[in-house]
Amino acid sequence: MSGIGYGTPIEPEGTSRTGALDTARRGSQRRNLLISTVSTVVFFALVIGAIAASPGASKVVDAFFSTSGFEDSFEPIVNGFWLNVKLMLVSEAFVLVLGLLVAVIRSIPGPVLAPLRLVALIYTDVFRGIPLILVIFMVGLGLPALRLDFFSDLSVFTFGVISLVLVYSAYVAEVYRAGIESVHPSQSAGARSLGLTQFQSMRFVILPQAIRRVIPPLLNDFIGLQKDTALIGLLGLVEVARAAENYAAETFNFTGYTMAALLFIAITIPLARTTDWLIERDRRRMASTAG
To answer: Alpha carbon 81 to chain centroid distance?
Structure first.
C-alpha cells in the first residue's frame, strides 16, 4: 500500500501496449516519409543534372524558357487561354445536361421509349467512336457548307462548342448510366411502392444517388475537355495553342508553348487532386459503413 498513492492511476497492460504500438507506427511513418523525400530529391536531381549536361541544353533553354519570351508572349497567351476556359465552361454546361438526358433515356424501360433508346444508343456509339478532331472538321467545315441561314451566321466559337458537346456528351452519358445502374433496384422498387411514377422515382430517388457517385469520373472527363479545347484552333480560333503558334512563327521562339502548357497545368492539376480527394473520401465512407 505504501508504494501506491490513492491518486495514482494504474494503467492497464493493454493500454501501455497500445501506446507502444502507436509510437512504433509513428516512427515507421516518419522513416518512410524521410526515405521517400530523399529518394524523390535524388531522382529529380539526377534528371535535371542529365538534362543540364546535354550538349544542346543551352539552346533548349533559350528556345523554350526565355525570360523575354515569357514577357512578350504573356498577353496573347493569357488572352488565348481565357478563350479556352470559356470554351470549357460553356461546353461543360451543355454536356452535363445532354449527357444526363441521354443516360436517362437509355435507362428508362418500356416499349414506348424503344425508338428513343435506339437513337441514344446510336448517338453514344457513333460519337465515342469518332475522334474529336474529325468531329471538329465535320462540324466546323460541314455545317457552313450547307448554306443555311442559321448555320452560316454561327461563329467559330459556336462550332467549337458544338463539336465538344457532341463528343463529350456521349462519354458523360455512359458515366451517368453507370451511376444509375449502380443504384440498387430496391431503391426504385421502394419509390414505386410509395406511389411515385417511373419518372418521379428516377428524378427524386435514383438520380440524386447516381450523380453523387459519378462526380469523380465526371471531373476526369472535364480535365480531358479542358485540354481538348486546344483542338478548336484548327478552325482558326485564336485560342492558347494558336496564340503560341503565332508567337513562335513571328519570333522563332517557342516559349509561348511552354507558357501555354503551364497554364493548362494550373487548371488540370487542382482538378485532378480534387478528384483524388473525392475518391478517397468515398472510399473511407464506404469502409466506415461496411465496418
So the answer is: 17
Q: What is the DSSP string of 105-163?
A: HHH--SGGGHHHHHHHHHHHHHHHHS-HHHHHHIIIIIHHHT--HHHHT--HHHHHHHH
- Report pLDDT digits (tens) over 4-45: 445 555 555 555 666 667 777 777 788 888 888 888 888 888
Secondary structure (H, E, C), 32-75: HHHHHHHHHHHHHHHHHHHHHHCCCHHHHHHHHCCHHHHHHHHH
Which residue carries 453507370 as its cell? 178
Closest CA to 163 of 187, 135, 189, 191: 135
Residue 119's closest CA among 105, 109, 129, 108?
A: 105
- CA dist 153 and 23 (Å) reads 71
What does the pLDDT read at residue 17?
Answer: 65
Rg (CA), the chain: 28
Lookup: cell for 167: 463528343
Q: Which amino acid is at 190?
A: G
Q: What whole-number distance in Å separates Cα of residue 291 and Cα of residue 232? A: 49
